[in-house]
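Q:
Got a chain?
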Amino acid sequence: MLLDKDDLIVYTKGDRVPDGRFNSRISGVMPDGRVVVMVNQYSASASEILSGAVQDHDRGVIVGRRTFGKGLVQRPFPFPDGSMIRLTVARYYTPSGRCIQKPYSDGDDSNYAEDILHRYRSGELSNADSVHINKAEKFTTDNGRVVYGGGGIMPDRFVPIDTTYYSDYYRDLVAKGAVNRFCMEYVDKHRSQLKKNYRNEEAFVAGFEVTDEMMDRLKDIGEKEGVEFNAAEYERSEPQMRLSIKGLIGRDLFEQSTYHRVVNAIDPSYNEALRLIQDEAEYKSLLTPASAAQ
């Protein structure tokens, strides 16, 4: 879609299997035009191959936080009894040569298994200066920009995690399934009327509002699930909760994308991506090597 014909997308290397190379088979239908890809610490596997190829070919700007770092190639081996194992045989590498897989040590996977927790404790999710960069693994993009390896894809524009609306109360409502249960219950009860009032996604996004009565019902469901109401924490999380509920109801009525159309309103990464894609000068500056920019 985005690259020129024969551009390298990703390649694989393993100790006991042949190397593999995956190139674009056709010229992209969108070879020009600004592209912004949003990522965060949970972006993994195929999304890292995509963002790594876009970044290495300077085809777009990556916005958000360092990705998860899942770049292992697994091959299924079936057995006669119908069971199967999936054996890791290689790793994925971006066009510039970066290994997507984050490192781990034999016999000690504590840092690997708890990587996201370590990122949070180190401040990497909230401060650009705390982001892990392995400067020993230095690579260059098509334009000559410097990018670093060490696991995951580093964004061109860092956006800190937003904890503005976080509260233990909201977390517990989600963890206990109260939010999903309420939304399913509400749509099942009002589906015909909702479809009548909002005949398409645009009408729903523009007109539907989560009422106070709906929020009171959510609180009731939460209490039945053992989540004690906390007024201060509720007030803090209320804007996010209302948007999330609206998005989940919209997803049930229309498409998965309806949810994101609703909640993107307060998503810092989305708003930064939207700002960048509309600012041609700043967009181009992020794709220019530091030496050339000076």
Notes: The beta strands are 8-13, 20-23, 36-39, 61-64, 72-78, 84-93, 134-140, 146-149, 157-158. The radius of gyration is 23 Å. The mean pLDDT is 94. Residues 231-253 form the longest helix (23 residues).
